[in-house]
Amino acid sequence: MNSEAAAKRLEAGMAAPNVYDAEPIPEAARIEIERLLTSGDLFRYTAAQDAPVALLEAEFAAQMGARYALAVSSCSAALFLSMKALDLPEGARVLVPAFTFAAVPSSVLHAGCEPVLVEVGSNFRIDLDDFRAKLDSADAVLISHMRGHTSDMDAIMAECDARGVPVIEDAAHSLGTRWAGRKIGTIGKVGCFSFQSYKLVNSGEGGMLITDDPELAARAVIMSGAYEHNWKKHKGLQNSFHHWQNRLPLYNMRMHNLSAAVIRPQLPLIEARVEAGLANHDHVAARLNGSPWIDVPPALPQETRAPDSLQFNLQGFESDDEARAFQEAAERRGVAVQIFGLSKDNARAFWNWQFLGTLPELPKTRAMLMRACDLRLPARLTRPDLDFIADAIIAAAAEVKARR
């Protein structure tokens, strides 16, 4: 579909592709939800065994190849519990990429730690020079694979292992991504995932923590809200649970059975969604990279991506007004493109994180965010949908640059 065809589609009253609807809920989930609502059995610890949440944890751990999985209320809760379970000291310095969602540094604050923001380059990945410069004073590293872009995990793990610094992976956007054949979320000490509606698996809200460390898992289970002896319904860690009983605070971040019922039927669909999402991404990326005004950074050699969105940089757009004109031109063609740094109060622009107090100067990240564009590309889109989107973006950039 060329730009003329896209214009005719709009003129004919045909809607632009809807990229905002979440993935549909499988029929199996609807049946299980009805059973739960009829029984009233919504709390994960009511059943003696095999509650939906417990089954989800076992299935997710097996799918990821992890020893332990803990289902919680959100990915932010998983990040918070990871830091508490690591027993980081009050005020511990935790390195965080400056390109992430505001909930990530918020979780660090919530855990009583200090977020230390690290520069991110134009390829949306951690700047390793700035990372190394700040690592010696760090107590932990929280790597946020923002929008599914994997930083150099070989270099990061080598540097952290040499210093004995634990790594937490924020894999909210990276379920299904692999690094040198390894699943993202299994490389660091802990991996944290999201099931919020715009993620690969949709339950509205929900999160998961995975680890191979039995003591960390036991501490996280108790602090998540396994009060009194409910920890007995988590298998395989009984001695550790006995040790930590009544010695840890309870934060009540449990997942309930309705969320697990929605998630479980979607786990077998992950591979197909990853395959479709990657094909969609790569098709649009190839189209956009044909424009002299657009750059979609490539995957790193070790990275096999699982995207449900696409990010690109505007090239040669010297002023903010010119970049805003591109947004307006794309919207007129039926495609909404968000420029991170030009979107008012964007929660992914670090200068809006005023809750952190005095913010550092991060010129590389700031420059990237001022021209970095964000576009949802759900796995369910068709090839005509994708071409409509690509044509609109390419034409919008060409229109603005032709005004010069």
CATH H-level homologous superfamily name of the largest domain: Type I PLP-dependent aspartate aminotransferase-like (Major domain)
Radius of gyration equals 22 Å
- Corresponding CATH architecture of the largest domain: 3-Layer(aba) Sandwich
- The CATH topology of the largest domain turns out to be Aspartate Aminotransferase, domain 2
Q: Helix and strand string, N-terminal first?
A: HHHEHEHEHEHEEEEEHHHHEEEHEHEH
Mean model confidence by pLDDT:
94
How many discrete structural domains?
2
Shape by Cα distribution: globular
How many angstroms separate the termini? 27 Å
Major sheet: arrangement of strands: 1-9-8-5-4-2-3
Secondary-structure content class = alpha/beta
Report the biggest beta sheet as strand number plus sense, adding barrel if it closes.
7 strands, mixed
Secondary structure tally, helices = 14
Helix percent reads 25-40%
Q: According to CATH, what is the class of the largest domain?
A: Alpha Beta
Q: How large is the share of residues in beta strands?
A: 5-15%
The total strand number stands at 14
Which ranges are low-confidence, i.e. pLDDT below 50, for 5 or more consecutive residues?
none
